[in-house]
Task: inverse folding
């Protein structure tokens, strides 16, 4: 078999594999989006922003979790659903102590997009990346203020 045929077989094989991988990721994102809509309807929450694809980064000591998934903001909490159930995160607004934005989070830089960094009241930090960082940060900040004034 000549070199051209081998290269062609490898290229076609890669194209098929990546097409299948991307189709699976798109399907998983759609299922996670549907799950967030169902969950928020069940709990009586209103979705403020999202669901949309996002990136999640959590650091605790030397342990780190980084993954892509689907993120949404409701009137009560921030919801992140990752590809595995252990990546699911819910952050009620009353658990957020502070919000900041930075291109870097715990030594991580990703795609030149800013992280929204949430310092939680338990001293842990989580960071998210979304399409419109300013819009999300303003909505979270507003929701934090609203949750602190509620009885």
Result:
């Amino acid at each position: 078999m000549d070199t051209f045929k081998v290269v062609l077989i490898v290229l076609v094989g890669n194209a098929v594999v990546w097409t299948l991988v991307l189709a699976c990721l798109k399907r998983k994102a759609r299922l996670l989006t549907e799950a967030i809509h169902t969950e928020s309807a069940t709990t009586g929450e209103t979705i403020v922003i999202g669901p949309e694809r996002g990136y999640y980064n959590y650091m605790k000591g030397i342990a780190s979790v980084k993954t892509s998934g689907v993120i949404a903001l409701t009137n009560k909490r921030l919801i992140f659903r990752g590809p595995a159930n252990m990546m699911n995160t819910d952050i009620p607004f009353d658990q957020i102590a502070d919000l900041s934005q930075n291109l870097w989070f715990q030594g991580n830089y990703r795609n030149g997009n800013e992280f929204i960094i949430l310092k939680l009241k338990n001293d842990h930090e989580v960071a998210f990346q979304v399409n419109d960082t300013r819009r999300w940060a303003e909505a979270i900040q507003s929701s934090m203020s609203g949750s602190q004034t509620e009885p």
